[in-house]
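FW: tagging you since you asked about this chain on Friday. Here's the raw sequence from the shared folder, copied in full. Didn't touch anything.
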Amino acid sequence: MPQTLSRALRIRLIHSEHLAACLEDAHWVTGLDAAFLAPDGSLICAYPRKPEPNICTLIRGRPGSFSGCATCHRMNGRQGIVSQVPPDCPAYLKSLEHELRVDDQAVGRFVLWPIRDAGIGPERAREAWTRLAREGASISWSEWKSAWDKTIAFSDKQLAATRRWLVLAVKELMRELDADPRLSGSDKALPGLVHRVCIIVRERHSEPLRLSGIARSCGVTAEHMSRMFHQATGLRFRDYLREVRMNESCRLLLDDQLRIAEIAEQVGHSSISRFNKAFKEYMGMTPGEWRRRSRRRVSGIQRDGSEY
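HL: got it, structure written out here
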């Protein structure tokens, strides 16, 4: 996946006022804390900017408290990509998440939290507190009960309805961003022409693509398209084409049944020598070396039972 383009899309989104307004709306509609995270889990924007203390901050802020909650890791920036299935939250809490994608590019993730399951009663609340106390967390029962009672409880139906609302809110956010007359072409998420070019590159990256040919098929000059593409993404067309091809190469190299010569052809290289040279310039190693390292990494994960 072209991560450089994803970053360009995210920059144009967060530089607008619409993202902050969307998070603020989410907070006031649901009563939950709202945040927008980058694909690697780092915090980009949140509302409220300084959240009120809640049960999550209570757990995280005490010595010996449970530290395995994936959302807590992400919001604190202590952990980058949470690639394992996280252990159960000690307070039986949930977060509601929705990934934002533009033209199949992961731009970021909206997160609403903390949510308490309305079906969990006082007995489970005390069970959760007892579990933490046994692990050494210095939280009194009165503190825990107070924080628990203040946490918003959703039934399954409420959770599903909130998820649907969040999807619609994000769609409206993107429409507002694209329609804002105050934004120049370089500030919109991606202009229609650039959308089209990105789709062509991803669908036809195995062909000998030229900017002039794509521009002609779109009814514009190569100079105009080159300028538009760079303004919208911060990339030159050839750099984006190379990134798409290299990401696809890495994906294909994970399949041991495919010969490197076949992969070279599938990503638009007329010879294996050119492919090897391009891959090494981009990845710092040959395709064969990258495949061997990936194989060893996968073997290590399988032995350890962990993705870290």
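FW: Residues 3-179 form one domain.
HL: agreed, and The CA atoms of residues 206 and 268 lie 4 Å apart.
FW: great, closing this out.
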